[in-house]
Amino acid sequence: MTSERRRRLRFNHYRLSTKLILTYIVLTVIPMAVLGIFSFIQYKESIEEQIGEYMPRFLRQANANIDNHIADVMAMPKLLLNSENTLAILRKDSYQSQADQNKDQYAVNNYLTRTYLNGSNSDILGVFVLSRNRLFHTSRIPFTGLDWESMLTPYGQDMDLRGKEKIILPSEIKLRFDGDIPYVMIMKQIQDTDNRKDLGTMFIAVQLTFIDRILLDFEQNEDAEIAMVSLKGEVIYHTRHELIGSMDMAVHEYPIWNGSFRESRSEKLISVTESQTFEGILVHSIPLEDLTARTDWTRTLSIMIFSGFVIVTTCLTVVFVLRVMSPIKKLIHLMKEVERGKFQVGLNMQRQDEVGILVRSFNSMIATIRELIEKNYDIKIRQKEAELYALQSQIDPHFMYNTLETISMAAEEGEKEAVVGMVTQLGRMLRFSVGNKSRFVPVREELQHVMDYLTIQKFRFEQRLSFDILEPHDLELYYTPKFIVQPIVENAVKYGLESRDKLIVEILVSRELGLRSGMEDIVIKVRDNGPGIPSRRLLEVEESLRQQTLTGKDSEFGLGNVNTRIVMMHGPHYGMQLHSVEGKGTEVTLRIPMIRLEDVSDLEQD
Amino acid sequence: MTRKTMTMVLMFLLFFVSACYNQKQDRYDVIYRMEPVKASSSSSIEDKEPRPFTIGIVPKVTGIPYFNVVEDGAVEAAKDLNVNVIYDGPLIADAEQQIKVIEDMIKRKVDLLAISANDPKRLVPVLTQAKEQGIRVITWDADTLPEARELFVNMVDPETLGRHLLDTLAWTMGEEGEYAIMTGALSASNLNEWIKWIRYQQTHYYPGMELVEIAATDDNPQQAYEVARELLNKHPDLKGIIGNSSVGPPAAAQVVSETGKKGDIKVVGLSTPNLMKSYLQDGSAQMATLWSPKKLGYLTVVIAKNLLEGNLPVHGQEIENVGSIRFNGDVVIMGEPLDFTRENVSQYDF
How confident is the model over B81-121, as pLDDT tens digits? Predict the structure, then answer.
């Protein structure tokens, strides 16, 4: 079971094209081959059965014809009784002189020749009459081996045939005709019906060629053989005359004596019928090949056509499978490309079938994805970038107006140094915001910008505002996103001065190990003693920070903007935290990674 | 396509191939079996026969050579055909005696009676009685009235025989002079039939000849001898004698020889070669005519057996050891008469 499961898995792992071709072969080629083989075998068998049924009937007919012929010959001894003279000679017991005997011999031989050899039946080779130690004979062809002593011992006058005929085969006597003409001998006792006595025995040798004539009408196939075989196995007659007289022992093994059967050793169809006259069987055998010669030809042709068909259809199947598979393969390739992020792909396919639909769907899907990305991602980023640029370069016009007014007042009061200082600071601020489009600046510069801002504000609000910036010296090498501290300080000044007479703003920069990032971060804390944020309001603000939404009030917008930018640039581990106690003050903590100069260029590119 | 279906297909193929292969395991694979030809009908009937038929044969008389030879033929046939034959007849050729023999046969429950009738009419009642007991009746040699029997086995055509007998006498007599006929029983129908044709032939062709007497011998050799002597005494100008029953010609020849009229009075007629041989050879008889009584006995038994098996004779039928027969509805004719002369009489053995 495990191996079968493994094999099944293996089949499932085959490539789709292999599966399709295998399936085609299993579903089409094998059933067709099986069907073909099955019907061929059935057809062949039915031909054999037809002939097997027809042949014994024909043999029986042939047998009847042979029997009739033999019966005609068997009736011939009676002709002897028609001659009074011959009858008188045969009745004689003894002779006075040799001359008398020779005269009678001549008379009877003469009668035999006239009656039997010159008669209508040309198959009679010779006639022998044995009567009371006299032999009368006549023959068409010279013969040898006539040995009456041996011939007559079993078949002589002593034997009582009871008027029945008997057939003697050449093997039983030594008589041979010149040219070894095949024959059978018909023996019949001649009875003197008047005296109720035996007159002698008559032997008529019949040439077997008459069987040829009978069989010629039935069978003309050269490979077919017809034989008359005695029950002892002696071949009495054979269409191949040289086999006459030989022995055929296979006869004893034949399963039936009337009917047909296949013989597997020599691949023959053998039909047999019993012959009463010869006490044997008439055997017809024909090679199965001959019967099915035409079928075999058909089979060869069918196999060739079938093979050609299989080859052609297999090729067609392969081509078809490849045609189906090639766009799928291309699709697979393209999907891998898309997986790698290349959306600028497409497959040109004009087909209307499922594969075409698939490809077109794929194309449109890619296009849609591409569109969506453009719409929802790139555009947003650009918008955001534009927004950010606008935001980061923004200097509050109120601030400008107030600063300029302060400068103007200072100028009127003749505070020359203050004017120069403020103008210098304001200029530096403007340059910071306008110049250098880089999104990152050294921490030092950012803090300078904040300090400029606070210094200008201090000119304006004098004693009401005080600030302190604490920075460690080892941060000179590090960078920070631009404009992240100023909006917070602005916020603190704006809200703090609304509710406090004396506002203190502290800025602390330090290095801390970030719990979430697991690395040392730069932490910038802006602390004020402003009104604080009510706790419910604080939750809302924190929520909006987490949502990174840029809506809301200006102040929130400022805070949100800072937080969003940090998160977008450095990930969710960084950003802004708010701590506030209502009435006591607020602390805003900015956490950014340690950014070196070399990191800046990488970050700029994103 | 799962693995299971593939296995099934493979198994099917394997089964298919192995089935083809298995067929070749046996050397012979019978396709068609035909019923053997039935053996000839007679032998099969013989096989079924529970007991052999019993055939009763009744001659006109026993003890004379002619009927003895008939018995030989009948016995030979009985042996060949495997039937029982009871051959019994009266000591004298007399209808009354014969009836007794027939009654005795009926008691012995024979299957068939074959009668050579001494009287065509007087035997009818007893034969009818036999028929009523389920015994079949045929006649041979001498017929009864047709209603008493199924068929009659005749030796020769009576017309042929009667004319031939007179022809032989006319030829030996020189077609002129007185002649007499020695018949058996005056009541025997076959003899009377022949006499009818003898007289017809003589009046038609031989006006110079004259029939002076028809004398009955009753198939008794002794009586025949007496009759012959009487004829010679009564008719001194007698030139020829025809004996139309087998005892007649030997008796006539004997008398002719004894009275020294050898050659003066010609003797012809129906008799057996054995009886006539010496007379033919010494010239006291000129020609004997007969059929083979052996053959007649044989044929009678063959016909009887065929009849018991339900087979009527057929015109031209070839009877084994007999030859072809003629049949015209109720009379079988065995063949042609044989003539025995000084030259050929020794060929015959009956």
Answer: 889 999 999 988 888 999 999 999 999 889 999 999 988 89
pLDDT digits over A411-456, tens only?
998 888 889 989 999 888 888 877 666 778 888 888 998 999 999 9
Q: In chain A, count of helices (H) and strands (E)?
A: 18, 19
Instruction: Spell out, as residue ranges, where chain A has pLDDT lower than 50.
Output: 1, 156-158, 550-553
CATH of domain B158-290: 3.40.50.2300
Contact yes or no for B292 and A11 at CB 8 A: no
The verdict on a CB contact (< 8 Å) between B347 and A7 is no
Residue B292: closest C-alpha in chain A: A194
**Size of the A and B interface in Cβ pairs below 8 Å:** 115
Q: Which of A291, A319, A347 finishes a domain?
A: A291
| A265 contacts on B by Cβ (under 8 Å) | 27
- CATH (one of 3.40.50.2300, 3.40.640.10, 2.40.50.150, 3.40.50.11810) for B50-155+293-335: 3.40.50.2300
**What would you measure as the largest C-alpha separation in chain A, in angstroms?**
208
Domain of residue A237: give its range. 51-291
For residue A86, give both structure tokens: 């011959």
- On the CB side of B51, CA atoms within 13 Å amount to 6
Nearest CB among A26, A261, A273 relative to B1 is that of: A26
Residue A384 lies in a domain: no
- Whether residue A68 lies inside any domain: the answer is yes
Residues A108/A120, Cβ–Cβ less than 8 Å: no
Could you say which of A242, A275, A291 is where a domain stops? A291
**Count of domains observed in chain A:** 2
Q: Given an 8 Å threshold on Cβ–Cβ distance, is B31 in contact with A256?
A: no
What pLDDT score does A505 carry?
92
Could you tell me if B136 lies within 8 Å of chain A, comparing CB atoms? no
Distance from CA of A150 to the nearest CA of B (A): 28
* Cα distances (Å, whole numbers) of residue A384 to A378, A525, A530: 10, 26, 32
The residue type of A541 is V
Q: What interface predicted TM-score (ipTM) does this complex get?
A: 0.71
Contact A141, A179 (CB under 8 A): yes
Question: Any idea what the Cα angle at residue A365 is, between residues A362 and A369, rounded to 5°?
Answer: 140
Q: What are the domain boundaries of chain B? A: 50-155+293-335, 158-290
